[in-house]
Specification:
Layout: E1 3-8, H1 11-33, E2 36-40, H2 47-54, E3 66-70, E4 72-74, H3 84-91, E5 103-104, H4 113-123, E6 140-143, E7 168-171, E8 182-185, H5 187-191, E9 196-200, H6 206-214, E10 234-239, H7 240-243, E11 253-254
This protein binds 6-phosphogluconic acid.
């Protein structure tokens, strides 16, 4: 799997670079297939990107042809401060002309959570078989990582990491705050994309990055983000602080 590593002086600059990539991919996807399918990340790192896209910088995004999916969700109602949908809505989705019915939120308020997971999986097309030639489901999957190397709500050594059949599962216990059950796309679903980008900021992610970049060809469930290995490769956008801990052997493009 190929890997591109871009290092920026701060999160604002890295977010601007991801906004450029997103615009190019959205434009290309709409020209080729009539719509842009974007999977967005939860957590706090993407919020500057969402604010940027909600303003002038987002004007060239073809919002009316954009379909939005969520990589994961916390099992709370949509207006709860911990809701990934709630944050994306407040910072971006309520402010741009994306079609409301093309915003596919995970229903964190549904019980049992397994029902919300299977509901969401039904909204997605079936997972292509590992040997099949089905086209990728998404155009861009945007992810973050936690200090423990989790991505989406795939926590270290969790059962969800070995799920091969289902695209979305319920996660009874979160390994990091907020400690509420979660819903998450599985590795196979996250990999079914024409592009995968990780946006990572801050020194507290350094140890995880070092382990992820040091992990062997197949990745390891100890550091879940290392298991996301789509055939198209992965782009990492890091700020200086996150990149500090990377071994010198990791080839990177340093941007001023
Ligand atoms: C979530 C996530 C999660 C997140 C990382 C990084 O719902 O919490 O999708 O995988 O991306 O935990 O979170 P921060 O950006 O807040 O550091």
């Amino acid at each position: 799997m190929s890997r591109t590593v871009d290092v920026y002086p701060d999160l604002a600059t890295a977010s601007g670079a991801l906004a450029d990539d997103l615009e190019a991919r959205a434009t290309e996807a709409v020209a080729a297939r009539g719509r842009f399918r974007w999977v967005i990340s939860g957590g706090s790192t993407p919020l500057p990107l969402y604010r940027l896209l909600a303003g002038r910088r987002g004007r060239r995004i073809p919002w009316e042809s954009t379909e939005v999916f969520f990589a994961d969700e916390r099992c709370v109602p949509p207006h709860h401060p911990d809701s990934n949908f709630g944050s994306a809505w407040a910072t971006l989705l309520a402010k741009v002309p994306v079609r409301r019915r093309w915003i596919h939120r995970m229903r964190g308020e549904l019980r049992p959570a397994s029902r919300a997971a299977s509901d969401y999986a039904r909204r997605l097309e079936p997972l292509p078989s590992p040997t099949g030639t089905a086209p990728p489901r998404f155009d861009l999957v945007h992810l973050g990582i936690g200090p423990d190397g989790h991505t989406a709500s795939l926590f270290p050594n969790a059962a969800a990491l070995t799920e091969l059949r289902r695209a979305v599962v319920a996660v009874p216990r979160a390994g990091q705050p907020p400690y509420v059950p979660r819903l998450t796309m599985t590795v196979g679903a996250l990999e079914s994309s024409r592009a995968v980008a990780f946006l990572v900021s801050g020194r507290d992610k350094g140890r995880a990055l070092r382990a992820i970049f040091g992990s062997r060809v197949r990745g390891t469930p100890n550091w879940p983000a290392s298991l996301v290995r789509p055939v198209v490769g992965v782009r990492w956008l890091l700020d200086d602080e996150a990149a500090e801990a990377l071994p010198d052997s990791v080839v990177r493009n340093v941007h001023p």
